[in-house]
Write a structure and sequence with these properties.
With 317 residues, the protein is an alpha+beta fold. Helices cover 24% and strands 30% of the residues. It has one domain: Nitrilase/N-carbamoyl-D-aminoacid amidohydrolase.
Length: 317
Amino acid sequence: MAARIDRATYHTSMNRQSRSTKPSIVRVGLVQSACTGDREQNVAQALAGIAEAAAGGADIVCLQELFAGEYPCQAEDHGKFAEAERVPGPLTEQLREAARQHGVAIVGSVFERRADGLFHNTAVVIDRDGEHAGTYRKMHIPDDPHYYEKFYFAPGDTGFLAVPTAIGPREAKPRTLQVGPLVCWDQWYPEAARLTAMAGAEAIFYPTAIGWLDGEESLHRAQYESWDTMLRSHAIANGVFVVAVNRTGREGPLRFWGASVVYAPSGETLVRAGHDTPETVVVECDLARIEWSRTRWPFFRDRRIDAYGGLLDRWGR
């Protein structure tokens, strides 16, 4: 069951009083936004989205990649490094306060200043009590037209994680969701999803910034469908929920394609946002489906781990 939240006229039938109490149900909120050059406004709309998702019954809320500003990597601009901040820092403190206020876990995305001259594209996991539960630094760094991330970010060194988070109403005994944080370009790598699932993740979260480039209109459908197919395949191959929260709106020659999505372990689409509008969506994920899928498609049982050593080579011998 999914509840879509219109930010102008909020309507949802799913709230903390009426929602199901089935122990295996987790409610995931997705906040898909369009960003401007006004950092304060961008942060405010993200915090408003968290509040709306929480009011709609969310246990955990995911924001899009680098939600506090316009996507910074469209050009190699040394001035953009001024947008980075420490983790923990002011932005993560705002997320911690939102988690405490609303009693929800949060997956956020930060332009991290780790040290002078050393920066990362970082996902943080905040528990529902406002504690900083985990940090993941993006492992795969792209370098494509208008995605010049190698200029800005060092590759991550955290490895692939599963971060335990407490979920459910504060007045109830907390349940645990194992959160697997990855970021955008990581979406294209089956190894990243596999290792995150093997770390124990029940849901993989991808804060994302991906879109269409002017002049490539003939490729738009194929590009989007390839992205969507990869997400769905990770859910099926690993028997996990996959959550991708993308930007929407235009920034220079990039038009972000939105379409934030949640896939069940079977590959079923649970919810999908539109391409062109900001949306906050809340969707139910039944964790019992993980066991159901993995016992019927036993990919982990049948893996030939004795034969995969070649994956550590750059190319075949």
